């Protein structure tokens, strides 16, 4: 039997893609994500790698199931709760489809509103 392992950065990159499919949404790291983002990008640049965008998404695991936290900036023309719900639906649908990883939860935080 062959076992496939999907890394947290791969899941995060797919989650960024899924979240940004929602109109008026841009994934943006909150304060906690900025520090880890700087360290990760520096490591990858040293290795000569082109990093996929994962800033603004954190992945935790409970066994093989992912718990995702997504930080977004939304348009000021949209209702925050409705946009956050749309981001949750998109991430819950796309991550398993593209990675095979089961998603237990998606917590969306609106970190900014653009006017």
Tell me the layout of helices and strands.
Layout: H1 8-20, E1 25-27, H2 31-46, E2 57-62, E3 65-75, H3 80-99, E4 102-114
Parallel strand pairs: 3-4
Antiparallel strand pairs: 1-3, 2-3
Helix pairs in contact: 1-3
Task: Name its key features.
alpha+beta, 115 residues
Computed CA radius of gyration, to the nearest angstrom: 14 Å
Can you tell me the CATH superfamily? Cation efflux protein, cytoplasmic domain
Q: What is the CATH architecture annotation?
A: 2-Layer Sandwich
- Fill in the CATH topology: Alpha-Beta Plaits
Please write the string of helix (H) and strand (E) elements: HEHEEHE
Overall average pLDDT: 87
Shape: globular
Straight-line N-to-C gap = 52 Å
Number of domains: 1
Main beta-sheet annotation: 4 strands, mixed
Roughly how much helix do the residues carry, as a percent range? 40-55%
Strand content: 25-35%
CATH class: Alpha Beta
Number of strands: 4
Task: Describe the 3D structure.
Belongs to the asp23 family. InterPro entries: Asp23. This is Asp23 family, cell envelope-related function. The structure is a single chain. The chain has helices at residues 8-20, 31-46, 80-99; strands at 25-27, 57-62, 65-75, 102-114. By secondary structure, it is an alpha+beta fold. The chain has one domain (8-114): Cation efflux protein, cytoplasmic domain (Alpha-Beta Plaits, 2-Layer Sandwich), CATH 3.30.70.1350. Strands 1, 2, 3 and 4 form a four-stranded mixed sheet that branches. α1 (8-20) packs across α3. It is globular.
